[in-house]
Design a protein that fits this description.
Layout (H helix, E strand, L loop, with lengths): L18 E3 L4 E3 H12 L20 H11 L4 H20 L14 E4 L6 H12 L3 E5 L15 H9 L4 H4 L3 E5 L20 H12 L2 E4 L13 E4 L4 E6 L4 H11 L5 H7 L11 H7 L3 H4 L4 E4 L5 H9 L5 H11 L3 E4 L1 H14 L6 H14 L7 E5 L1 H5 L5 E4 L5
Parallel strand pairs: 3-8, 3-9, 4-5, 5-8, 10-11
Antiparallel strand pairs: 1-2, 6-7, 11-12
Helix pairs in contact: 2-3, 2-4, 8-10, 12-14
Length: 408
């Protein structure tokens, strides 16, 4: 009788390489193992708790930082903190079940503290985009306790599911960004006698989903009602990033720092009031501000963002891959018009944004105000270069129009 041979690799059957037989066809155990690795990987990447394969491949902290550098100017401390936190979060999902010990790596959520327009939302959006995970962005001021007019906390998860195109497994590894978390701080350290619809009650409602639990959500959003079907989402692996300006928190920090200094030390504290002390924030400062201790305990990592300087604002106008200047130049190019800015003009635009205290998000509206009259005539300017000078910004003068040499 002829010796059996594997129809894939032609190897002979042995006690170490057993065969699986079909109708006149054989495959050896070595080929079965190789085929499994081709289809499902080599076993180094573990499956999630639900048994499904994890498709996220975490970037190293330096790689995340480099991506953030392309889109967010400055804020080095915040970018480094966020890069490490995001790396550890997705590493925990991918590799947390390796090993046979009982060590359980808990989820670490993030709190971003910084002035309006300093880049909190942009940081979260950029990370989600390049990790290719769904993201839901919501404003904490729109949230209310269940039973009150407004938006249920659970609707945040509905938004995330919609961002994941209805894929629950993908949504369960996404990012939720809750902006203006400081606006739901309770008033003072004493609880209000009346029902707090948008403050402490919302903080309490957020605890469950942020910590990690199974949450029933209405599939199409809206209020829950008894006869509605629900979807169940596990929030254990969802990364929550909360952001807020926390206006006035520096006074609380300075009081705490000053309380530990006697005599002439008080003078040192008052002299340093022009310098930001937000990076010295502690949990007790947030409690005094009005964030409940239970919520602070679930936001384990705090990253602080500094106010944007004039030089940083100019860089924001020019340097990011999707900078505002590049966007408007692209708009002008479509009509065969070149757009350029003198250095003085850029600094004047940046100065106006700082004076309005709108941060980087105010740059677009300022740019629109400056260019609206020019863009009104844009189709008639084909073949021209438009140069924006400092006088255009500060004295409302006309820009310089120059016929392009290429079109002459």
């Amino acid at each position: 009788m002829a010796k059996k041979r594997c129809n894939f690799c032609n190897a002979g059957e042995s006690s170490e390489n057993l065969f699986i037989a079909g109708k006149g066809v054989y495959i050896c155990s070595n080929c079965v193992t190789s085929a499994y690795k081709i289809l499902y990987g080599d076993g180094e990447e573990q499956s999630g708790e639900d048994g499904g394969e994890i498709s996220i491949s975490p970037l190293a902290p330096k790689e995340i930082h480099k991506i953030l550098d392309d889109y967010v100017i400055g804020q080095e401390r915040a970018k480094k903190t966020l890069s490490v936190a995001v790396y550890n979060h997705y590493k925990r999902i991918l590799k947390g079940n390796l090993g046979e010990d009982e060590t359980n790596i808990e989820k670490s959520n993030i709190l971003l503290i910084g002035p309006t327009g300093s880049g909190k939302t942009l940081l979260a959006q950029t990370i989600a985009k390049f990790l290719d995970v769904p993201i839901a962005i919501t404003d904490a001021t729109n949230l209310t306790e269940a039973g009150y007019v407004g938006e249920d906390v659970e609707n945040i998860l509905t938004k995330l599911l919609q961002s994941a195109d209805g894929d629950i497994e993908r949504a369960e590894r996404g990012i939720i960004f809750i902006d203006e978390i400081d606006k739901i701080a309770r008033m003072g350290e004493n609880r209000s006698i009346t029902r707090d619809v948008s403050g402490e009650g919302v903080q309490q409602a957020l605890l469950k989903i942020i910590e990690g639990s199974l949450v029933n959500i209405p599939p199409k959003g809206g209020r829950k009602h008894p006869h509605q079907d629900f979807l169940q989402i596990d929030t254990s692996n969802i990364l929550f990033i909360c952001g807020g300006a926390f206006d006035g928190i520096e006074e609380i920090i300075r009081r705490r720092l000053g309380a530990n200094i006697l005599g002439f030390g008080q003078e040192k504290v008052s002299k340093s009031e022009d310098k930001s002390v937000t990076h010295l924030i502690e949990s007790s400062d947030l409690v005094q501000y009005g964030i409940i201790p239970e919520l602070i305990g679930r936001l384990h990592i705090i990253a602080t963002l500094e106010p944007i300087t004039l030089d940083d604002m100019v860089k924001i106008l020019l340097e990011p891959k999707n900078s505002i200047v590049k966007q408007y130049q692209k708009l002008f190019e479509i009509d065969n018009v070149s757009l350029s800015f003198e250095d003085g003009a850029l600094r004047a635009i940046a100065q106006r944004a700082i004076e309005r205290k709108t941060g980087a998000r105010g740059l677009r509206s300022i740019m629109e105000e400056i260019l609206i009259d020019i863009m009104y005539e844009l189709p008639e300017l084909s073949g021209y270069e438009v140069i924006i000078t400092e006088d255009v910004i500060n004295k409302n003068l006309k820009p310089i129009y120059r016929k392009n040499s290429k079109s002459a």
